[in-house]
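Internal ticket - ligand job 233, NAP:
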Amino acid sequence: MNKKVLITGGSRGIGRALALYFAEKQFDVAICARNQEKLEELALELKDFKVNVIAEVCDVSKPEAIKAFCSKVLAQWKQIDILVNNAGTYLPGKVTEETDGTLEKLIETNLYSAYYFSKSIASSMITNGSGYIFNIASVAGLQAYPNGGSYSISKFAMIGLSKALREELKSHNIRVTNISPGAVLTDSWAGVDLPESRFISAKDIAKIVFDLHGLSPQTDVEDLVVRPILGDI
Ligand SMILES: NC(=O)c1ccc[n+]([C@@H]2O[C@H](COP(=O)([O-])OP(=O)(O)OC[C@H]3O[C@@H](n4cnc5c(N)ncnc54)[C@H](OP(=O)(O)O)[C@@H]3O)[C@@H](O)[C@H]2O)c1
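stdout (structure tokens):
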């Protein structure tokens, strides 16, 4: 039986690269996002690898939508081996100048999503006595920077969530890894006039996640920082 991975925000960017990489490695893949068309397109590509695919619209800023999606996936698959909390959105801004509501929007999409997905999936991992949760944070959660504003706050909080989950879940044999990437070439950087070579490739993040999962079950890489070789942009 294939192993199962659930990737939030799986339709584009890092999430899409993860979905393709895991499908190529014969994992069954569950993905969610808001844009149905993009999900359906990717689902077709994933099925070419002869794996089971669940691709559903789910707005991860809505806890009820998350719970419904997770219930559906668990009803079909009974267990999830890997959860990748990847969905996120970037809005540049300064705390003192951002429009009201910016922090709420970013916290809902970037933090509460991971919080509710983890809550929804962890109990089945506890029952199985194994599991792996990856949280995709950012270097913006390690170091504040000009125009980082609420995005940076949401990623600092994500790192806090990773630490809390790790403490709670380690005695259940569930590994938690927080990955903090620098600039990864995705839609988030659309229009930026820099060569591809200045970015991390999304596929490299996928390879890292896959390889970490392949380490011995007693080994947990707790925090990983990944940067372009020339540093942050
Ligand atoms: N790219 C970078 O340089 C970089 C660096 C560090 C960390 N990160 C983090 O890596 C993660 C992925 O980033 P990315 O660059 O791959 O982003 P992206 O290309 O913009 O893709 C974001 C993905 O998340 C989904 N998504 C966004 N809001 C959502 C919502 N409310 N509900 C459901 N799905 C939602 C998008 O699909 P829909 O729009 O269809 O919903 C899409 O599949 C994010 O957490 C980001 O903060 C990225």
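Auto-summary: The first strand starts at residue 4 and ends at 8. Residues 9-15, 32-35, 38, 58-61, 86-90, 109-110, 136, 138, 181, 183-184, 186-188 surround NAP (CB under 6 Å).
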